[in-house]
Description:
This protein is mainly α. It has helices at 24-34, 47-66, 68-72, 81-106, 112-120, 137-155, 164-192, 196-215, 227-232, 240-258, 283-290, 297-310, 312-333, and strands at 268-270, 275-277. Helix 2 (47-66) runs antiparallel to helix 4 and helix 6 crosses helix 10 (240-258).
Amino acid sequence: xxxxxxxxxxxxxxxxxxxxxxxxxxxxxxxxxxxxxxxxxxxxxxxxxxxxxxxxxxxxxxxxxxxxxxxxxxxxxxxxxxxxxxxxxxxxxxxxxxxxxxxxxxxxxxxxxxxxxxxxxxxxxxxxxxxxxxxxxxxxxxxxxxxxxxxxxxxxxxxxxxxxxxxxxxxxxxxxxxxxxxxxxxxxxxxxxxxxxxxxxxxxxxxxxxxxxxxxxxxxxxxxxxxxxxxxxxxxxxxxxxxxxxxxxxxxxxxxxxxxxxxxxxxxxxxxxxxxxxxxxxxxxxxxxxxxxxxxxxxxxxxxxxxxxxxxxxxxxxxxxxxxxxxxxxxxxx
Length: 334
Ligand code: BYC
């Protein structure tokens, strides 16, 4: 379902840069862009390319780490041992994704402490979707099905990003997200085969998450400030709106199989476009949540800061142990 996201609509490719009077380093970078090749950490890169990627990769890492919270809330309340084991593994995977992504960002000359400080100070963004609550077990299933589903749709094209460490991290992450998406669908399917109360719970969770999930793809193309440049650098391959459309088109059939209604009266097949039309997104809500005023923004950040502070002794112990090991190695070498 998701692999078609690798196809570039209209054959979009990173644009060729104007090579007149550029430094040899810039010329090499431009040639890599034209050939749709890879930039590696030791290669020269324009400062703006580096900054864009540090911004995007760190926001992505923060999203993975903050994203552990809405589902993590349900680990101790999962309805069976099997679901608990699956959820534990899934939430742990998200933590792992955050760590690969922080490592990928660090290859661009920024420290993890700087990135984490920016998050904790409220200066760095993370995905709007993780500022919504998970009041029922069905919300956990819907996160797997829709949130991870949207994440895969957005991330498959990132496997071909021109920055090598990000592209390689995304390949592994997408494989794991694919498992997450299926486990979410499976958990919901089990509930849909259960009682009416369970079916109602699933429908209410779908109603809560549908519109925020569509916002995950970012502002509409006309309001996306970074898209133009990110296309030129082969970071973005498919636009925010095109990915959103692909997602809607894929999910309609899955919703039918599941037996839930997507909460959009304007959702209908458009035979001319060969795609589903869908209703207007509430962009005011999107910007409100992005700018810190969503239902759970304050709680999510406070929980993250507290976890970081509570873990200070682990970092201190690890540093003390590393210093002790280094001193021992020096003594043995002397
Ligand atoms: N939420 O010019 P635009 C997961 C910001 S986690 C918040 O289109 P761009 C998972 C954008 O940053 C997966 N902010 O930007 C984890 C920019 O602001 P700044 C998370 C958003 O970068 C746990 C401004 O709006 N995935 O799967 O070209 C459990 C203008 O936007 C959002 C990623 O991070 C948003 N939704 O495109 C379960 C994917 N959308 O930075 C699951 C990687 C936009 O100028 N990121 N903004 O202050 C991307 O692909 C791109 O950054 C985006 C935005 C498509 C999100």
